[in-house]
């Protein structure tokens, strides 16, 4: 493994609250019942398997998986310094690196048995997905190794009026950055187009978003939505031509609206294997 491209001037991102990412891990576990869908359990149970989490965020997936599969080694990478840094917060078989995700990844070819990436659709343009992120993920994956993506659609099913206003503003903001907030629907096609993968599977699931009618996990889903929006508070308020304070009020109104609108989120898991 090479570390020459690891960022050394660490980026401080503590001014924003990324705790919703930890909540999202629990929501995905509820929706999917597992932390991954690729049929790689046998690999993970063998000693010495290497796993990469691209865009690891707070590192919750890496830590959870490293506890469940102590014989494998898990590496999380992100360009934000929001993952665990205190050795006491790490497991013996987990490592985190800060590095650029759009440049060449700091690993040798054919290095990992399994590469995982989730909640990244807002981070990359369509061009970056096709020309940088996915090619690099494939490059560092071993022949016959697994790659897996998990994303949630930017728009929801049966959105209320206020939620629609907010998600439309997110769409407009993303469009200006050439980001496709519905790329989860197309990931299987993008993977197929590389010509380097086989055994491609695309799974989709729906889950309630909203407290009250949606129960515990519906409440969790709407809290995660609010957390994502608050991260983009300044940008979305400007997009909607309102003040940040008015945006805060709109989020609160959205939480109330979601208690009765029976809105659903749609999540995707796409996995494949690298051709030998």
UniProtKB/TrEMBL annotation:
Keywords: Methyltransferase, Transferase. It holds the Pfam family Methyltransf_25. The keyword Transferase applies. One of its GO terms (biological process) is methylation. InterPro entries: Methyltransf_25, SAM-dependent_MTases_sf. One of its GO terms (molecular function) is methyltransferase activity. Residues 51-145 form the Methyltransferase domain. The keyword Protein biosynthesis does not apply. This is S-adenosyl-L-methionine-dependent methyltransferase. It comes from Rhizophagus irregularis. The lineage of its organism: Eukaryota, Fungi, Fungi incertae sedis, Mucoromycota, Glomeromycotina.
């Amino acid at each position: 493994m090479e570390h020459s491209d690891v960022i050394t001037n660490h980026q401080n991102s503590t001014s924003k609250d990324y705790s919703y990412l930890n909540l999202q891990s629990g929501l995905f576990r509820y929706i999917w019942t597992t932390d991954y869908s690729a049929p790689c359990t046998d690999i993970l149970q063998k000693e010495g398997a290497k796993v990469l989490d691209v865009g690891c965020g707070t590192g919750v997936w890496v830590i959870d998986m490293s506890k469940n599969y102590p014989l494998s080694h898990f590496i999380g990478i992100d360009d934000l310094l929001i993952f665990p840094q205190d050795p006491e917060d790490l497991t013996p078989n987990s490592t985190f690196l800060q590095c650029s995700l759009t440049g060449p990844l700091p690993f040798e070819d054919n290095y990992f048995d399994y590469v995982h990436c989730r909640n990244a659709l807002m981070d990359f343009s369509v061009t970056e997905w096709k020309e940088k992120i996915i090619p690099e993920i494939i490059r560092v994956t071993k022949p016959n190794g697994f790659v897996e993506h998990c994303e949630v659609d930017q728009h929801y099913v049966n959105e209320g009026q206020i939620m629609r206003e907010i998600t439309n503003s997110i769409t407009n903001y993303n469009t200006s950055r050439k980001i496709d907030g519905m790329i989860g629907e197309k990931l299987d096609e993008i993977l197929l187009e590389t010509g380097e993968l086989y055994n491609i599977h695309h799974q989709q699931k729906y889950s309630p978003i909203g407290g009250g009618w949606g129960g515990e996990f519906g409440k969790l889903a709407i809290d995660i939505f609010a957390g994502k929006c608050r991260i983009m508070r300044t940008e979305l308020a400007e997009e909607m031509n309102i003040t940040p304070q008015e945006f805060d009020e709109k989020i609160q109104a959205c939480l109330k609206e979601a208690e009765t609108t029976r809105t659903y989120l749609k999540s995707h898991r796409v996995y494949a294997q690298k051709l030998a």
